[in-house]
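Cont'd.
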Amino acid sequence: MKKTWYKEGVVYQIYPRSFKDSNGDGIGDLRGIIEKLDYIKELGVDIVWICPVYKSPMVDNGYDISDYRNINPEFGTLEDWKELINGLHERGIKLVMDLVVNHTSNEHPWFLESKKSKDNPYRDYYIWREGKGKKAPNNWSSFFTGSAWEYDEVTGEYYLHLFSKEQPDLNWDNPKVREEVKKIAQYWLDLGVDGFRCDVINIISKDCEFPNGRFRIGITGCEHYINGPHVHEYLQELNRDVFSKYDCFTVGETVFTSADEALKYVSEERNELSMIFHFDHMFVDNIYKWFLRPFKLRKLKRILSRWQYTINGKGWNSLYLENHDQPRIVSRWGDDQEYRLESAKMLATMMFFQQGTPYIYQGQEIGMTNAYFKDLSQYRDIESLNIYKIGRKYLKLSHNRMMKKLQKMSRDNARTPMQWDDSENAGFTTGTPWIEVNQNYLDVNVKQAQKDPNSILNYYKKLIKLRKEHEIIVYGDYQELYPNHKHLYVYERNLDNQKLIVITSFSKKPVKFTVPKNLKYTKS
Ligand code: TEU
Ligand code: CA
């Protein structure tokens, strides 16, 4: 298996809007990240991925881009961005940007042109179709609820948007669109970027007949675009014409992709992506995110082991438990009260000793928890606010029932401001934060964690250090042990004559475990 920096490195994901505000407007920004470069360095991470900071109307907090080559003023300037990447590179840390090219903002100049007339040169940059009578071209739904089609009065046609109506899908079957995307990637790579996180990259190719889909809550029609007809062709084209010309890595966000399908994206000989984020483990405690079901450890073990066995030796995994779209893992699968420290460390161990590149999401390293907002007005996320409306209006669910769902699964749980210290607003801003700070910041914050040798933060630093000291953690193979155990997740890693056994307990009660006799110990 090829050895390379992005397999050996640890990634720290930053959601700039919530990381650190430098100018008191309540919104995190690039200069705020620059202020924290030494903190990031001390963590020991090797790569930083920042969520989108491009020009955007911020309908979906930056995942609706109106200018791919400029920085959104509320995050700062291109000069600030250059100071950030130089600051990271000076510290031996690489920078990965978010490449959001399945869709643009409806305020992007391409779309403003495209919607002007049916014969506008940019018309085919997007996906326009005649309706069926007064109805949309088909029954596809948006990930953010409602129809995936929006009617446009001026030209009397509908345009496709798999997310919000302010995020029209690009038409990847149009070679001009693919050329535009290549130029955007080249622009940032030439500015020194070391890689891309490719947003929902497995849905860029749609079945061009746009047939009706089988009904599935919230994602009707997805069988006609998930891992679509030309997705691999287009990724190979992007890799051949751009990525392969730079020492860069790509991680694709590939929703609803199986481990077997993943091999088509990440097998070294495919020359598509370096690795992907799958979602299989993110659905272990829910159906379609909002219909909750009990967490079952054996189900989680089956899923993670499947990904380890399928990818090992052929491609490369990403390892994550949190990101800006998911609730806080210590509240979700751990215990964010009595055993917050123990369970956060256990979850970190369980995940980051597996084979793959580990991703730590801002705040995960100090065991930040869900926000438990009590009032709908505290939420900001378009997906959460839409789900609340749908749940109340169509599913007739009570306000309390919907608030419980948001408390458990809302993306805003991951977007409350980073908790730096116990001063006002957790040291995130001197202004009014765009979203409320989690009230437990007095106890859960970086400053407190730095002083406590037993903190989750210092544990993460040890984990990261171990990865650098023991190649077996990066390149060892994986073998699950005791798969039927209800409370323990045990696996071993092997490399040459070394063996590493990882034993993690998901139980609140002590669990007896006898280490198998046949183990040859190596001094370490
Ligand atoms: O997320 C795509 C995606 O699948 C998630 O939004 C999913 O619908 C759910 O929220 C998580 O279970 C990417 C970005 O990460 C997300 O922030 C954007 O809102 C979305 O694409 C559109 O760009
Ligand atoms: Ca700011």
